[in-house]
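User: Fold this one for me? It's ParB/RepB/Spo0J family partition protein.
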Amino acid sequence: MSAIRAYLKGLVEEAKKPTSSTLLLAELVPRPQPRRRFEEASLKALAESIRAHGVLEPLLVRPLGDGRYEIVAGERRYRAAQMAGLSEVPVVVLEGLDEKTAQAIALMENLQREDLNPYEETVAVLDLLALELSKSREEVISLLHRMWNEARGKSTRNVAGSPEAQRVEEVFRLLGRMDWSSFVRHRLPLLNLPPDLQEALLEGAIPYTAALELKKVKEEGERRKLLEEAKAGLSLRELKAKVRELLRKEASPPPWHKEVLARLSRLDLEALPPEKRKAVERHLQALAKELGLTRKA
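Assistant: Here's what I get for ParB/RepB/Spo0J family partition protein.
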């Protein structure tokens, strides 16, 4: 990672220098990357700025060998330039860039964006760790959980002192946003959100803290109601209070008489044995009489 960090620093400095190199938009190809959504309003604002001032920061690209260039960093500027009606943009062409470094640059560029969605940021961090450790995303998640369990005294595998754990810590130091334990506590749970919460988070309709709070509500109808309130501006403090109340009600058993009434409503008298049916009917008739529910002749 130290080699990649030094290389990235050099690229950042190079990208800040004035450049006279330009390429046609038709020659550029976006690469798959963690930024799944581009806010339409934000793109329009950037397009307006580009119309007025041009593309101020060049795109980082690498040649594909067929006359086209892959966008390593700067896809948002590329899309906004298209929207602004430009035919070409300034670029820095990175010759001889291998796939691993290109992927690291793309991930780092996205992670430096302030408007990157928390869910997408979580996935991007995992992908950066997977790239650094030569592991799958699932293997990285497993490693982080093992580190977390050991830190809490629930495991004695000595993962913390391993080279892999040290590289994980180095990646988080490089990113400078949070440490690995905070990532495990607050970000990994976002991967297991119900579809409705995941969608709201991806749209930017709610903060990730609200999504994690709403995740505690298992009843879909109640969660949907609270989700709409959160979208409408319900504060996190108020949301937590409502969630606590719901969970308290869910944990409390229903009053015994309500349980009896619920079971009676599902009772099929015809299915009972004759003797038991007669006994139940006698009790029901007595109860009806006591409550004044007997039919008048």
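One thing worth pointing out: Residues 118-190 form one domain.
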